[in-house]
Structure formats: C-alpha cells, structure tokens
C-alpha cells in the first residue's frame, strides 16, 4: 500500500456512514477519523439546538481548531497505519476552512434517498422546531460535490448506501479497488461496540450511534415510511440535489 494515504467519505446525516466506517475500521492498517471537523464546526457556528454541550466542552472529544484538524487528516499517519478512512459530515466542512486541502484526500460521496435520510433525522428528533435543509445537509453535499469536481478535475466516486448494504461484499471489493486499499472479508462483520470509533464511545453523542455501534454486519430491510406531510416541502427542496449526484453513482451489475 502507498503510505500516507487519506480516504475521505463525505455524507449527509443518516446515510449509514457509521456502519461503512466500522467496516473499514476492521482493516488492520486503517485508522478511522470520525467526523473530525465536528468541534471546529461548532466553534464557529456555536451550540447547535440539539447538542447537550457547548463547543468548548466538546474539546474533550473533538479538536476545535480546524487548522489542526486539517494537519491531522492530511499529515503523517499513526504508527501501524498505512491509510486513514475519514468519515466527514459535509455540512461540517465550512467554507472558512478553505478547500485546497481536499485535493490531498481520495474523496468519495455517500448518498441515500432523502426521503429516508429526512425521515430518519426527524424520527430521531435531532432538532427542535421546523426541520430545515441546512440540518439535513443536502445543499451542502451537492455544493461540495461540485467543488471537489472542480478542484480535482474529475467526477468523484459516488456510492448509494442502499445498494451497498444489499450487496456489501461486491460493493466493498470494488470500492477498495477504486480507493487503492486491500479488501478483506473482515469488513463484512464485526463485534458490537468495538473501539473503531473511539471518540464516540463515552461521549454525550454516543446515543446518536446506538444502532451502528451495536451492529455486527450490514443489514437491509425494506420499509414503507409513513412520511409526514409537514416534511414534503423539505423533501421537494432536497430531491434535485440528490438526483444530480445520484446520476453519477457507481452501478455494479
């Protein structure tokens, strides 16, 4: 493997990003950086309305200085690691952080139908009052997709999480090949609540990840959503951004 390799997975909330990070975390030479910009995002945006702590209290779990975060995610790897797998909530990558550093990463974008991500976000009650597009992240996701396309001169790889969880071996094998890392069957199952996402466990935010932390493998269950009428305008607002990225998704027959 090439040393000092950094892989970045960009996602909107509730896109199954954590279980994918857990799969990569099973690889012996991988270090997982889980939402490393979270603290820096809060340090600029201030306390979010669903967070139990102020940004300065979050410093126990997440770095508040975005420059230090950038140095970490583009710099030297820890001993024993040949690459990092970075799980980035797109809305945390504020314009204030710049964009040139993204060129040092191997980027791909994770998507999931907004009807599912919005419903999951709403059902988990991660907000108070009306749910807006800036919370669910689709506008930021599309804007960054375009920016990465312009920065790198190529269309980023796009993975639909619904398709991946239906055929995880096939998609992970192809994804690893595209990313330049060695696939292992160990990516298909793991122990519940292991230490691959260490910053989450013991933090005030652990309850957001309960299902992913307690999971042992990829699962898919077809569900008919009782989608609230009050969220239809938000869905209509998000769908065009999703569809524009969706057309570039990886399809494996």
TrEMBL record:
Family: Belongs to the class-IV pyridoxal-phosphate-dependent aminotransferase family.
Stored InterPro entries: Class-IV_PLP-Dep_Aminotrnsfr, P-loop_NTPase
Pfam family, one: Sulfotransfer_5
Entries under Gene3D superfamilies matching the protein: P-loop containing nucleotide triphosphate hydrolases
SUPFAM superfamilies, A to Z: P-loop containing nucleoside triphosphate hydrolases
Protein name in UniProt: Sulfotransferase family protein
């Amino acid at each position: 493997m090439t040393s000092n390799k950094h892989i970045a997975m960009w996602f909107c909330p509730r896109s199954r990003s954590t279980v994918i990070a857990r799969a990569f975390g099973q690889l012996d030479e991988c270090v997982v950086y889980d939402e490393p910009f979270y603290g820096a995002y809060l340090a600029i945006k201030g306390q979010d309305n669903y967070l139990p702590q102020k940004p300065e209290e979050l410093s126990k779990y997440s770095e508040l200085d975005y420059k230090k975060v950038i140095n970490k995610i583009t710099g030297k790897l820890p001993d024993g690691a040949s690459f990092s797998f970075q799980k980035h909530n797109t809305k945390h990558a504020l314009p204030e952080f710049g964009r040139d550093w993204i060129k040092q990463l191997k980027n791909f974008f994770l998507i999931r139908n907004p009807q599912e991500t919005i419903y999951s976000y709403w059902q988990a009650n991660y907000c108070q009052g009306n749910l807006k597009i800036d919370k669910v992240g689709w506008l930021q996701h599309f804007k960054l997709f375009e920016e990465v396309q312009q920065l790198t001169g190529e269309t980023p790889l796009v993975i639909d999480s619904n398709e991946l969880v239906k055929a995880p071996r096939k998609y992970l094998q192809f994804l690893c090949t595209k990313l330049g890392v060695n696939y292992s069957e160990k990516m298909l199952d793991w122990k519940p609540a292991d230490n691959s996402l260490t910053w989450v466990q013991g933090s005030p935010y652990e309850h957001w990840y309960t299902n992913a932390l307690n999971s042992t493998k990829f699962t898919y269950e077809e569900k008919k959503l009782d989608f609230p009428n009050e969220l239809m305008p938000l869905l209509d607002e998000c769908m065009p951004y999703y569809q524009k990225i969706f057309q570039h998704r990886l399809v494996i027959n």
